[in-house]
Protein 1
Amino acid sequence: QLQEQQEEIENMMNAIFKGIFVHRYRDVVPEIRAICMEELGTWMKSYTASFLTDGYLKYIGWTLHDKQWQVRLQCVKALQGLYCHRDTAAHMELFTSRFKTRMVSMVLDKEPDVAVEVVKLLTLMLENTEEVLTEEDCQSIYPVVYVSSRALASAAGLFLYRRLLDPREVGREPSRNGDNRTFFRLLLAFFIESELHEHAAYLVDSLWDCAGPRLRDWETISALLLEESPTKGLADRQEKALVEILAASVVQAAEGQPPVGRSLAKKVTGL
């Protein structure tokens, strides 16, 4: 009897979905399209067995291309609610492979609010899926740490830190005395490779919220700069870059403000 009632309920839900949602998710009114995406995300989290399937996920994937940014934003937020848990993310392999390119490209969305949430989404994917994001995908996200919008740059800073700079995440433990030598060497490698050496203040500001304590480790920075060992010491180029990062970190710690040219406003401009 329970099984029969459950099937009846599922049939009713399916009828409502096909009779209402399938028509309204393309409604001419963007607010209605946004509500459809928001609710679909809720259904998928609440009734995973019924709704977390490729047959339903495809509607979110298609709507990632919506012309209205409010609708795209709801799609991204719905996906955040799914990728934030490993068990639900594991059910989304086909969706991920099909729509990952679109999600990565949305890092450059013309609406800053959407771009910020997309970077947060990709960070969740990084943390809760197994090697889904390729190095090429990540390379298109890293440069966002240099944009003028602080909200977007900080979101990208967390992604960069999780993927490339956290010694624990990349399988390299700091030394026993707890110093941050590994972190600074990884940071220097990224900074030098990015070839934007005049923008140390931007990079430091982007990482400040997630790696501030590491960046304020003046003792380790001093030790690295004073190291004269041919094996452990820094090359001239690394020393110069580390001094720039040190200077930017000191200014950031003293003033507590984003660098000149980085705004808290919504307008986003690349380098």
Note: Residues 134-169+176-258 form one domain.
Protein 2
Amino acid sequence: MWPFICQFIEKLFRETIEPAVRGANNHLSTFSFTKIDIGHQPLRINGVKVYTENVDKRQIILDLQISFVGNCEIDLEIKRYFCRAGVKSIQIHGTMRVILEPLIGDMPLIGALSLFFLRKPLLEINWTGLTNLLDVPGLNGLSDTIILDIISNYLVLPNRITVPLVSDVQIAQLRFPIPKGVLRIHFIEAQDLEGKDTYLKGIVKGKSDPYGIIRVGNQIFQSKVIKENLNPKWNEVYEALVYEHPGQELEIELFDEDPDKDDFLGSLMIDLIEVEKERLLDEWFTLDEVSKGKLHLKLEWLTLMPTAENLDKVLTSIRADKDQANDGLSSALLILYLDSARNLPVSYILMDTLLS
């Protein structure tokens, strides 16, 4: 299948990624790929998990442990600035979810195919001419790390690639599904964290300046920093949309803020299926990958209701908790589908800019 996958990837680059890059910034309006060769080394699938519980009977859900280490040749240019750059190798490792839906009674039995990563994959890119690329106005604030994060997040939920296999499938509903629920995360406090700050050239151990990074798919939240405290109290609340379960997890990492490189203070991974079952979890969790430290979280699973009959009750409840979140707590979810536009005015300013 690899040669045909490569054809699909080239089509994706030219028809989806190239126009998206051109539209992202005025300075990138002449961006184009001049060569796309993904190479002959195929992607490896190291393991497959198939879900048989808590899934719709009209779909098949697969989690693929994928690994790709390939020598490729991808060249790009921005004609306006006579800039050329490229990629000569890519590595990507992670869990890709494949959803086959809807199942139908005619060949090919599957209406469409959806692909995405449940969490940010490990991505490494060997660039050529990256310095030239970062000299382009509008890109000079970027770095290799930031570019990798942007690409990685584009592959992660709620972003997805959906390929229709029959003509009458409702592609918009597959590409932009209604979330399964909302996860309300009360990021409360921690205890007994490691002291990473040192004095007298490392002889005396001090405290830490802890903060947390919380991830659900590509939704990322960062807490405030608590200075010089091994038992910090944050008392912050975040809300994240959950699109896929089983499989999605809440990821938390704690760090000690430093002027140069922040020190790692521990991590936590929580399966959202457990939160959905319990509806409310209020627990102390032991931090992983460190010798000590605990984190106090309260997690609420909120189900989406199709009618507004309980809205007054919800509004009363969140008014009582109004001080818990800077932006307030949510009472409802608005989903807006932007379908198309017609007869848009011509942008003469942009034309003048290009011609000058």
Note: The domain at 181-321 is CATH 2.60.40.150 (Immunoglobulin-like).
